[in-house]
Amino acid sequence: MEMIDVSGYLAEEKVAIAHQHLIPQLRKETSLSADQLNIEDSALEELIKHYCRESGVRNLQQHIERIFRKAALQIAEQQPEDEQPAATTAISENSDAEPVSTPSDPPTFTPEKINISTENLQKFVGRPKFTSDRMYEVTPPGVIMGLAWTAMGGSALYIETVLKRPVDVTSDKDGSIETTGNLGDVMKESVRTALTVSKGILAREQPDNKFFDKSHIHIHVPEGATPKDGPSAGVTLVSSLLSLALNRPVVQDMAMTGEISLTGKVLPVGGIREKIIAARRVGAKRVFLPAENRRDFDDLPEFMKSELDIRFVSHYDELYEHLFQ
């Protein structure tokens, strides 16, 4: 059996599918016309961003169905209970016959139109399942925004690196490194590789800086309940370690992804489409990608590539030149 990878829908594609297929089908099933129920584009975008991040549209369909059900109930509750068809008296041609009561035409009931917007969306679908991917508006030294590819699509992946205690250059003990955040074996190996690469770069840039020799470092990847694995955070780990060692925050609104080799080469990774979606969602302006992923990026729709400053790098030194500028 051949397995074929199918990319998930973009937010813009999900909105189009909702307008062209999901909503028209539900109008037929519920008999709710556009004059009775309207769902604004902003509400659909809110649904997709904070409720339905899955690659497909099944979850989006279920949420729209919930909106239609609650709207139908509200419309039914608008009709007054005592507003029943009135009866009229009809007399037959035979004057001796008893009068016969017949129902008159039912009164006309026009329900108030329901408009779904971002303001009232929670009343129909509850609280959002996802909050903003952006944990930091301003990243401090040691914190870098990476990009990840998950079952839910793309997302921001922050790497936090801090000192467990102040550096003591007079201590006889060597430095250490601790990792948390539910990391898999491959990602733990990537941490060790990133540390070696970082030591080499620091020794080259600042030969007298012995930060890594005596430092006790803690690396954490937030959302510890979510397992994380893979090598694609390599360049993010190196950047986080160097930012901490130099005590300098990196350029804001920057994101990156790429595997790192022991000699500093930046190797290709998967999920470029999903990661670009995540970068746009969190408001990143500059994104560093492996040079070997250029073809994957070029295949993306033009509107996805707009408003992003994409930098392709084949070696970490090319990224380092722009890390603090």
UniProtKB/TrEMBL annotation:
Domain of life from the UniProt record: Eukaryota
Chain residue ranges for the region called Disordered: 77-114
Keywords: ATP-binding, Hydrolase, Nucleotide-binding, Protease, Serine protease
Active site (catalytic residues): 232, 275
GO-annotated molecular function: ATP binding; ATP-dependent peptidase activity; serine-type endopeptidase activity
Pfam families per the UniProt record, alphabetical: Lon_C, Lon_lid
SUPFAM superfamilies given in the database record: P-loop containing nucleoside triphosphate hydrolases, Ribosomal protein S5 domain 2-like
InterPro entries, per database record: Lon_lid (IPR054594), Lon_proteolytic (IPR008269), Lon_Prtase (IPR027065), P-loop_NTPase (IPR027417), Peptidase_S16_AS (IPR008268), Ribosomal_Su5_D2-typ_SF (IPR020568), Ribsml_uS5_D2-typ_fold_subgr (IPR014721)
Domain Lon proteolytic: start-end pairs: 138-325
GO biological process: protein catabolic process; proteolysis
Family: Belongs to the peptidase S16 family.
Protein name (Swiss-Prot/TrEMBL): Lon proteolytic domain-containing protein
Organism annotation: Caenorhabditis briggsae
Lineage: Eukaryota, Metazoa, Ecdysozoa, Nematoda, Chromadorea
